[in-house]
Amino acid sequence: MITTPTPSMLRALPAEHRHRLMRLGREVSFPQGARLFEEGSRADRFWIIRTGTVELDMHVPGRRAAVIETLHHNELVGWSWLFAPHVWHLGAEATTPVRTYEFNATTVRLMCQDDPAMGSAIALWVGDVLAHRLRSARTRLLDLYAPYGADGNV
After folding, report:
1. What is the spatial distance between Cα 5 and Cα 102, in angstroms, rounded to a whole number?
2. In sequence order, what are the beta bridge partners of 58?
3. pTM for this one?
4. Residue 57: which CATH number?
């Protein structure tokens, strides 16, 4: 399977917007095994990974959580903070020790509201990440749960 990388903030945002956003970030670390957030909980922050790996997972009734994607350096952890009702649609766990930049979602949303060009750039970046994650989730769930040899034909 050919996969495309998650859109990086470094490539997605113009330098001016990237620098303004990064001024709002604070350095945070998570030990291996720490849950960054749980599916269904309040999405009030997001992270950009500096070092380490984070797995995104999805609750599947009657089964273990399905790992949807593994995130690495410079990737966005969390998109639900941008869209109402601001509730996580997936869960996230540090699979190694992780260092991140953490951002307060309310502060970033207000900044985007005050600067429509920045808001548009961030919305496009997060939208690209969201589209990528939906494709990854679909592919992963088909890999895990589709009947062997399922090709759409009966």
Report:
1. 21
2. 66
3. 0.83
4. 2.60.120.10
